[in-house]
């Protein structure tokens, strides 16, 4: 196998649209090594000793914020968390001034989640620490896209040629956007289905994406199914009749699951609306890798820190 010579040192992680296949492969290779550290009794290596990282979250998070924090700690970095509700943001401090303030403290990286699309890119233009986008509006969630690819690779080995069905609320999903870029770059076949009101127009014109009217057609013979969360908090009006109706027409249940390959892998970025977009029996069933995604999130974020802050695998 050819050695991957790509370097990601200093790269801002803004979205998977600007990741090459070699960069994605490097993250996945590095994450595999990082996962070993998580399984050790003493989860601590000095790869990022002397580095300092701030997580800056303007929107709620359980998985992403915690895993970025744990990933930094496992690698020996100093990490401080800022959340909008408990900082000077509540006194009206602007995003730019908050970024300047954090930069002035000498940090090496800022992990940032914000409701505005483009907020992470803006941050990368106004301050010097490396920016890792932990979700900006409905635009991008690159570390989630990478952890999805890592989870698929751990189960399926090869990514190219695998059929993935992405189901549900694509319109509001930054995860779906990052998935679509990453999966296409890695040669996967991307199939999409959901209520028409929740499928953005651009999908129909994108090369390498098949949009289906019925979710059964997307699921048929799929290697991977990713169910998206219905994002009620981002919806302005009634984009579908009722959650009960949604579950009936678009929910992933055991009956529909049987249309996919026997060893189909089920993903969901979380948190789940169980009984709406996914039946509990599917979410916790034998094909589900939803809990594993959470653990892989720590490994992938360790890989990202290592690659952007040191340029290499030093664990
Ligand atoms: N997947 C995801 O982004 O989850 P959190 O909102 O809990 O971080």
At a glance:
This protein is of the alpha/beta class. Helix content is 38%, strand content 15%. It has a 5-stranded parallel β-sheet with strand order 7-6-5-8-9. A 4-stranded parallel β-sheet has the order 2-1-3-4, with helices on both faces.
Describe the protein.
The strands form two sheets. A five-stranded parallel sheet has the order 7-6-5-8-9. The chain is 38% helix and 15% strand. Helix 1 crosses helix 12 (290-309), helix 2 (63-74) crosses helix 12 (290-309) and helix 5 crosses helix 6. It is globular and about 55 Å long. Strand 6 (189-193), helix 7 (202-205) and strand 7 (209-212) form a beta-alpha-beta unit. It is α/β, with parallel strands linked by helices.
Q: Strand count, sense and closure of the main sheet?
A: 5 strands, parallel
Radius of gyration: 19 Å
Distance between the termini: 22 Å
Topology as a string of helices (H) and strands (E)? HEHEHEHEHEHEHEHEHHEHH
Strand proportion, as a percent range, falls in 5-15%
Number of extended strands: 9
Instruction: Average the pLDDT over all residues and give the rounded result.
Output: 94
Ligand inventory:
phosphoric acid mono(formamide)ester
Number of helices: 12
Would you identify the regions where 5 or more consecutive residues have pLDDT less than 50? none
What percent of the residues sit in helical stretches (DSSP H or I)?
25-40%
Structural class by secondary-structure content = alpha/beta
Physical arrangement of strands within the biggest beta sheet: 7-6-5-8-9
Q: Give the overall shape.
A: globular
């Amino acid at each position: 196998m050819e050695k991957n010579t790509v370097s990601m040192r200093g790269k801002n992680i803004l979205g998977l649209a600007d990741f090459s296949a070699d960069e994605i492969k490097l993250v996945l290779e590095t994450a595999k090594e990082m996962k070993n550290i998580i399984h050790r009794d003493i989860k601590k290596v000095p790869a990022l000793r002397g580095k300092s990282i701030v997580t800056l979250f303007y929107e709620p998070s359980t998985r992403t914020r915690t895993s970025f924090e744990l990933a930094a700690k496992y690698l020996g970095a100093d990490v401080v968390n800022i959340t909008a509700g408990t900082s000077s943001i509540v006194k009206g401090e602007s995003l730019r001034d908050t970024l300047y303030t954090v930069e002035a403290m000498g940090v090496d990286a800022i992990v940032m989640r914000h409701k505005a699309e483009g907020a992470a890119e803006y941050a990368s233009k106004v301050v010097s620490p490396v920016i890792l986008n932990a979700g900006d509006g409905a635009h991008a969630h690159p570390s989630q896209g990478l952890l999805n690819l890592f989870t698929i690779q751990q189960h399926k080995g090869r990514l190219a040629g695998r059929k993935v069905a992405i189901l549900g609320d694509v319109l509001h999903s930054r995860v779906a956007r990052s998935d679509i870029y990453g999966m296409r770059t890695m040669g996967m076949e991307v199939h999409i289905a959901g209520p028409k009101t929740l499928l953005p127009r651009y999908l129909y014109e994108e090369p390498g994406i098949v949009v289906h009217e019925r979710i059964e057609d997307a699921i048929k013979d799929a290697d991977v199914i990713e169910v998206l969360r219905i994002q009620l908090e981002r919806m302005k009006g009634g984009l579908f009749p009722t959650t009960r109706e949604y579950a009936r027409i678009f929910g992933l249940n055991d009956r529909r699951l049987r249309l996919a390959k026997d060893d189909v892998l089920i993903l969901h970025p979380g948190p789940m609306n169980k009984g709406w977009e996914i039946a509990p029996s599917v979410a916790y069933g034998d094909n589900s890798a939803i809990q594993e995604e959470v653990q892989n999130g720590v490994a992938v974020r360790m890989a990202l820190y290592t690659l952007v802050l040191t340029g290499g695998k030093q664990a």
